[in-house]
Write a structure and sequence with these properties.
Layout: E1 9-11, E2 16-19, E3 30-32, H1 36-44, H2 51-66, H3 74-89, H4 96-111, H5 117-146, E4 155-158, H6 175-182, E5 188-192, H7 199-210, E6 215-218, H8 223-228, E7 234-237, E8 241-243, E9 249-252, H9 255-264, E10 269-272, E11 278-279, H10 296-299, E12 300-301, E13 304-305, E14 318-321, E15 328-331, E16 334-336, H11 340-347
Parallel strand pairs: 4-5, 4-7, 5-6, 7-10, 8-11, 10-15
Antiparallel strand pairs: 1-2, 2-3, 8-9, 9-14, 12-13, 15-16
Helix pairs in contact: 1-2, 2-3, 2-4, 2-5, 3-4, 4-5, 5-6
Length: about 350
């Protein structure tokens, strides 16, 4: 069975195109990224979003940002690379893949012995392509290891969008769903709408529907009710950063509420987590910076104002789910369970020096 899955990122060899996810599902618009400022804005404005997709987009975006500087002396070109990487890294703080991607690209540039800026640019292009291909492989790995969790007749809840639109491949949380669907397993997906920006409604339900998966959209505050009625057997979400020190999970706001509800009703709560999203520098979730976004995301619904003028607003984009609520982390190498400090280090020891 061939899946009809939309892709968020397209690199032609010298040009970067990003699917503008703020326009979905009403319009499908692919934007050519003409400058590094466009890429920065695309990440900041959530035209491209999802930790893995941000990392891949930033790697290609760095190439866009240095293409017009190939006539600089090699040492000045190297300084330009570092400056542009730091600029892209400043676009969003919570997803670890963005910082990881920029560090990897800069380290590649520093370690590569070249005689010309053209050679260095070629090496960085190869590195960006490698990051893209690796993410596709990570998605397939998570799909392979997570698919057996989905049994015939199950109801699977997911929150926000951790699908193909959030990665370079078949997604993180959706990867097991796509693999199970390809294997002919009948199951239902319930997608939380994910206020305030409706990534579950606009993106997850759209891409799962296009792939032919049985998906039902619900508002965020309906999850507990459906769990109480026995309609949810399994929860799989994605993550933007996992604290390597203890397995705490930072994901889209509302994820912690879902995890607590799942614990109350005895429903296993899994998190799909590629190794690139594990941050061994974070000992616990308290070390993860939580992005606060603009008030108008909360005080309006589309073009309609839905709150009193001048009302005080809090708009954290993420929350941290304590590790005790997480049944397992679905990684490309297998499912990791508690104790996370020991088992993550054992499975991904080579990433601790990142």
């Amino acid at each position: 069975m061939k899946l009809n899955i939309p892709q968020a990122i397209r690199w032609t060899g010298d040009e970067l195109y990003l699917l503008d996810q703020t326009k979905l599902p009403g319009e499908v618009v692919e934007e050519k990224q003409e400058s590094i400022e466009m890429v920065w804005e695309a990440i900041k404005q959530l035209k491209v979003r999802g930790a893995p997709a941000i990392g891949v987009s930033a790697a290609f975006g760095l190439l866009v940002g240095i293409q017009d500087a190939l006539d600089l002396p090699l040492d000045k070109f190297m300084q330009h690379i570092e400056k542009q990487a730091a600029y892209l890294d400043s676009s969003r703080p919570t997803a670890v893949n963005l910082h990881w991607s920029m560090v990897r690209m800069v380290n590649k540039a520093k370690s590569f012995s070249v005689a010309s800026t053209t050679e260095l640019y070629k090496a960085l292009t190869d590195e960006a392509v490698a990051i893209d291909l690796e993410d596709k492989e990570l998605c397939l790995g998570m799909g392979k290891h997570g698919a057996p969790l989905i049994k015939p007749g199950m109801g699977v809840l997911t929150h926000c969008n951790a699908g193909s639109l959030a990665t370079a491949g078949i997604g993180t949380a959706t990867a097991p769903m796509y693999v199970a669907h390809q294997n002919g397993v009948p199951f239902k997906v319930f997608a939380d709408e994910t206020r305030p920006l409706l990534q579950g409604a606009r993106l997850t339900s759209w891409e799962l529907q296009k792939a032919g998966i049985d998906v039902t959209l619900i508002t965020d505050n309906m999850a507990g009710h459906l769990m109480s009625k026995g309609l949810i057997d399994l929860v799989i979400t994605g993550t933007d950063r996992v604290a390597g020190g203890n397995g705490d999970v930072a994901n889209k706001i509302g994820t912690m509420s879902v995890a607590i509800l799942a614990d109350h009703f005895g429903i296993p709560f899994y998190v799909a987590c590629p190794s690139s999203t594990i941050d061994f520098a974070s000992k616990t979730g308290d070390d993860i910076e939580i992005e606060e976004r603009a008030n108008d995301e909360v005080t309006s619904f589309g073009d309609r104002i839905t709150a009193p003028k001048g009302i005080k607003v809090r708009n954290p984009a993420f929350d941290v789910t304590p590790n005790r609520f997480v049944k397992g982390l679905i990684t490309e190498k297998g499912i990791v369970s508690a104790p996370y400090d020991v088992n993550l280090a054992e499975m991904f020891h080579s990433h601790q020096s990142r």
